[in-house]
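Q: Hi! First time doing this. I have a protein sequence and I read that you can turn it into a structure. Is that right? Here it is:
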Amino acid sequence: MAAATNVKPLKPETETDAEVKATILLVDDDELLRHSIGRVVRRAGFNLLLASDGEEALEILRNEHVDVIVADHYMPSMSGLQLLTVARLGWPNTVRILLTGHADQSVAIQAINRGEVYRLLQKPCDPAQLTFMLGYAVARAEQLGLAAAA
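A: Yes, that's right. Below is the predicted 3D structure, encoded as structure tokens:
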């Protein structure tokens, strides 16, 4: 089999590109789950911010650039769907993913209509699937950022 001559290496073009990583905000009230998913996110090469509830997540959003929010649906005081709805209004270029262990049709409909979520993922989430989905979500965040700048 002949080698392709137009194949570009999968590496950053400049040193600056190597330093720029997408930032993922992971919001879950379950500390063990937050840290296990966090390990997957870090291993995939993303910057990671952690929050244990919606209020903490909003504070992070006010102070940090976030490309993608991954929020658990069922949390005390503010659900993931409520958080993502607020995030949609305040940070529309941040891509939103909702995690849930109890997905039903009404949650999915609300997630799409109110939170305009990019994806709804069921827990437990396969690490490879999560990494794959985060890659697509970051690409979507980049598209949104370019569209807003135009």
